[in-house]
Amino acid sequence: MKNEEYLDIKQANYRNIYQLFFQHEHLSKPQIVKMLNLSLPTVVNNITELETEGKIKEQGFFQPQGGRPAIAYQLVDDAFITIGVEIQQTKVRCIALNLKGEVLNVDTNVLYFENEPPYIENLSQVIYLFLQKIAYPQERILGIGFSIQGIVSKDGQSMLYSRVLSSEHFDFKQLQLYFDIPTMLFHDVKCAALTELWFSEHIDNAVYVSISEHLGGAIIINNQIDLGKKGYSGALEHLQIHTDGNLCYCGQRGCLETYCSLSALLAPDETTEAFFASLRENDELSVMRWDAFLEHLAKGLNTVYLLLERDIILGGEIAFYLIEDDLQILQQRISELSTFPLDSDFIRIATQQKYPSAMGAALPFLVKYLA
Ligand SMILES: [Zn+2]
Fold first, then answer.
1. CATH value of 3-75 in 3.30.2290.10, 3.90.550.10, 1.10.238.10, 1.10.10.10
2. Which of 109, 189, 286, 339 has the CB geometry, 3.0–4.6 Å to 210, for a possible disulfide?
3. Distance from the CA of 107 to the center of ligand 1, in angstroms?
4. Ligand 1 centre and the CA of 246: distance in Å?
5. Domains of the chain: which residue ranges?
C-alpha cells in the first residue's frame, strides 16, 4: 500500500469514529469495532487521539451481561464552539453554539447602527465582552458569523446592498481587524433559512419567506441556500405587485415589502403581539388589516410559486403568531390566482422561531467543521 493511501484510510477511520459520536450518546471501544468493522487496535489508537485532543471524554461504564464492563465515551460537544452576531438597526445579538448547534449562551445589547468608526469599535467591544463572558479560549472558537439586514457578496466579505440599515457600505474589513478568528458576513434572511435547514431534516427544495420588520426571501435548492450569481437571489421583497403602489425604500413603487412586512402591517407604536392579540379576538379593524395583508401576500407568493413551484416556509418574527387558519386562507387565495391547479398543502410555518438569524450566522462554521 502506498503511503498516501495509508494516510487516507487513517484519516477516514479517525473521521468516521469521531462522526459516530455525533450520532450516539455513549459508545464503547467494542461497540465501535462492531459498528465500523475495524480492528480493536485501530479503534484504541483513534480513541486515545480523540481523547487527547479533548474531542471525546470518558463517561462511566457499560455493564454488558456476563462480560467485562467497558468504558463509555461521549462527545465533548463544546470542544469547539461557533459565534453568531446579529446586527440590527437598534440592537446586536450575540449567540454561542456548541458542535451540535445547541445554544450555549445568548446576549442582546442595544446598539444603534451607523456606518462610522465608533460603531465598529462599539460593536467589537460588545462581542469582546460576550466572548469574555462565555470564556472559551480563542483556539476553540471556529469562527464569528455576522448576520446583517442587507445583501452580502457570495464570499461573505462585503455588503452589496442595504437600504434598511442606514448605510450601503458597511466597513466589514475594518471590523475584521479586531479579531484573530475567521469572520464572515451573511444576509440575515439567508441565515434564518440556513437555521431552518439545519433543524428540519428533509427540506430539499423550498422558498423561505422571512416576515419581520422587513420582508425577505431565500431559495433552498438541494438542501443548500441558493446565492444566485452575486448574492441577490431570493429578493422577493422587491416584487412589484402594484405599478402605482406604496413607495418602497428601494425607490420603486408597489414592492411586496410595502404591503407584507411588519413595518407595513403595524401602526407606528403597535407591537406584533398586540396586533395578533386583537386579531385573534376578532377586532374588526385588525381583521380587515390582516385580510388585506394576506391578499397582498397571496399575490406575491403566487408569482413565487408560479416561478419555482416549491413549498413555501413562512419565517421571521411573524412565524410565532401564525396559525393554521392563516395558511389555509393564504393557500386558498393563491389557488384562486394560480394558473395551474394546486391541490395539496404547500405553505408551512418555520419550525425554528427563536434567534434564527443569529444562529444561522454561526452555523456555516459548524457546517464546514463537520463536513
Ligand atoms: Zn422595493
1. 1.10.10.10
2. 189
3. 32
4. 9
5. 3-75, 81-193+356-370, 201-349
- Strand, helix or coil for residue 353: coil
Q: What is the pLDDT of residues 282-310, one digit of tens each?
A: 999 999 999 999 999 999 999 999 999 99
Cα 6 to ligand 1 centre (Å): 57
d(CA 105, CA 82): 11
C-alpha distances out from residue 303 to 180, 210, 236, 294, 319, Å: 45, 16, 9, 14, 21
Read off the pLDDT band of 167 (50, 70, 90). Answer: low
Output the nine-digit C-alpha cell for 347. Answer: 405553505
C-alpha 288 to ligand 1 mean position (Å): 24
Cα of 237 vs centre of ligand 1, distance in Å, is 6
Measured over the CA atoms of residue 247, residue 251, residue 254 and residue 255, the dihedral's sign is negative
**Alpha carbon of 57 to ligand 1 centroid (Å):** 53
Using a pLDDT cut of 90, give the percent of the chain over it. Answer: 74
Rounded to the nearest angstrom, the distance between the alpha carbon of 214 and the centre of ligand 1 is 11
Q: Which residues surround ligand 1, an ion (CB under 5 A)?
A: 238, 248, 250, 252, 255
From 3.30.420.40, 3.30.70.1130, 3.40.50.10860, 1.10.1670.10, which CATH number describes the 201-349 domain? 3.30.420.40
Q: State pLDDT tens for residues 96-149.
A: 999 999 999 999 999 998 877 788 999 999 999 999 999 999 999 999 999 998
